[in-house]
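From the methods appendix. Each design record in this collection lists the tokenized structure first, followed by the designed amino acid sequence. Records were kept in a plain field format so they could be parsed without special tools. The example shown here is representative of the layout used throughout.

RECORD:
FOLD TOKENS (158 positions):
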């Protein structure tokens, strides 16, 4: 049995430094700083999980955190928990495929107005006039969603 008289951080730094091919000068510097930063990242970073973080989904879809968490909690949008490749903490993600499938089937009211280039008040009046109702499956979500199948038949000028 080997007894080591070093703290765990120093052991980690020594282990990483021993595996570096490219070392920066001066070599007398303590810690990982003596190595090439890109090479250090490659040694400590885990494989990417391939999913989208909540912040990415929120920004892409123009949803609030509350809308996203309600969609996931109600089972409208699948998600999974995986390990973050950088900080190694559990992270809930949405797969790109699942988000694309959701977006092909449903659209939020404000996103529909943006897609059509119409003010949301005018769009609302047009949808009501044509008898198109929001999808009742999303009644528990703090945003209005429509089925894309229900709005496909309406004129794109709406």
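DESIGN:
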């Amino acid at each position: 049995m080997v007894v080591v008289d070093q703290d765990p951080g120093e052991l980690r730094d020594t282990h990483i430094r021993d595996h570096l091919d490219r070392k920066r000068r001066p070599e007398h510097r303590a810690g990982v700083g003596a190595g090439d930063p890109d090479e250090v990242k490659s040694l400590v970073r885990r494989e990417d999980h391939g999913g989208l973080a909540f912040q990415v989904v929120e920004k892409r879809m123009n949803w609030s955190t509350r809308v996203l968490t309600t969609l996931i909690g109600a089972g409208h949008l699948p998600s999974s928990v995986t390990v973050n490749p950088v900080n190694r903490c559990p992270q809930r993600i949405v797969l790109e495929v699942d988000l694309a499938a959701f977006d092909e089937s449903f659209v939020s009211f404000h996103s529909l107005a943006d897609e059509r280039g119409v003010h949301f008040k005018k769009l609302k009046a047009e949808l009501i006039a044509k008898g198109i109702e929001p999808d009742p499956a999303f009644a528990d979500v703090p945003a209005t969603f429509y089925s894309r199948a229900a709005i496909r038949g309406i004129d794109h000028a709406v």
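APPENDIX NOTE: DSSP finds eight helices and five strands in the chain.
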